[in-house]
Design a protein that fits this description.
6-stranded mixed sheet, 431 residues, 6-stranded antiparallel sheet
Amino acid sequence: MKNNIWRQSLHLEPKNGWLNDPNGLTYFKGTYYIYHQYSENPNGGMKLWYGYTSPNLINYRDNGIILKNDTIFDKSGVYSGSAYNKEDKMIFYYTGNVKNEGNYDYIHEGREHNTIKLTSKDGINFSEKECVLKNIDYPNMSNHVRDPKVYEKNNHEYLILGGRDKKDYGCLLIYKDMKYYKTVYSNKNMGYMWECPDYFMLNGKEIFVFSPQGISHMYSEYYNTYQVGYSVIEEGIENLELINNFKLLDHGYDFYAPQTFLDEDGNRVLIAWMYVPDSYYINPTVKFNYQNCLSIPRVLKYENGVIKQKIHKSVESLYDREILGEIFSEKAWYFNKQDGEKFEIKIDSMNIKYDNKKMDINLNETGYGRKNISFDININDIEIIFDSSSFEIFINDGEFTFTSRFYTNNHNVEINSKNYKIYKLKGIEVK
């Protein structure tokens, strides 16, 4: 088997096995805690939590598997969850999955979806697991309720869960101080399941981020298998009745289950899983016994009615020497163009080009099933982070983003443009 030219230097990815949703992201007493769903099988399987710690989102310590399915409440998997800081400890919530033996569909019967709480002072050693919500505590729901997130407001804790009700409508369950408060739907059909909810304050606005499943079959503008978007909650969580707005958070093929947290500077930072489950495309790294990665950290801003995503300072600190010339060979590099004029970037058979207010992303065979796509967009400025098998595009001060994997046979780059800057990127360090 040939050498793996797709192993990345900027992104957290497993040495072996399967990676999915980021979990429990937090900054606590000078340390970043980054966890993600993990299966030892590169094609997925029993879900556990895998963890890293870092002082700066550049140098990481690999702490391995952190949470296992070792109780009656999570014996079929340690599913996704989140963390927040309270006084001298981190508080974690996650979904404990239990699939009972029998002839069940595991949608409306046969599954337990328990909300589990535990605490830690170091992100490695945890308190005893406490089951705080069970099936009986989710009114009118199917057996799909998961991914808890806590939002604190006015001395109250709102715990939110993504749900699928008994009639197969996606919804949001809200608990106020651990007591059922309300179930929230959309003013139009937004699929059969709302996964990975996040809720936070951003520039004075309450923002709800979620991953609705099923809307690609309902609305032509949502072309991925599952989408990720956000809603601005003008009335506040305590008065929320219906979700009446929704915008895509990313337009690419590999962006799902994002989770946010506050960094050392108080910025709202997002990290996502760079894949979309149940997709028609594949990742050829499975032949090297691993699959998937996390996105780079991104700073969120809310400006002029939209969320903007910007490259985090930890990534900017990795900008190295400037690359001069139009032809070069690099695996990890940064592209910046500020004049709004046309350009084309070629890597092997893949190309990204912009001209006359149209951007074409042609992955061809490097997409392994990811289709070529075009956008009508007026680009004033653009930044792109390239790694060995991924790229993340930030357009118009981060108002439009596109995230994707790609798998070339080489890293020979050709640029056709004027007035641009390119920098080689140093990598993160994982020990």
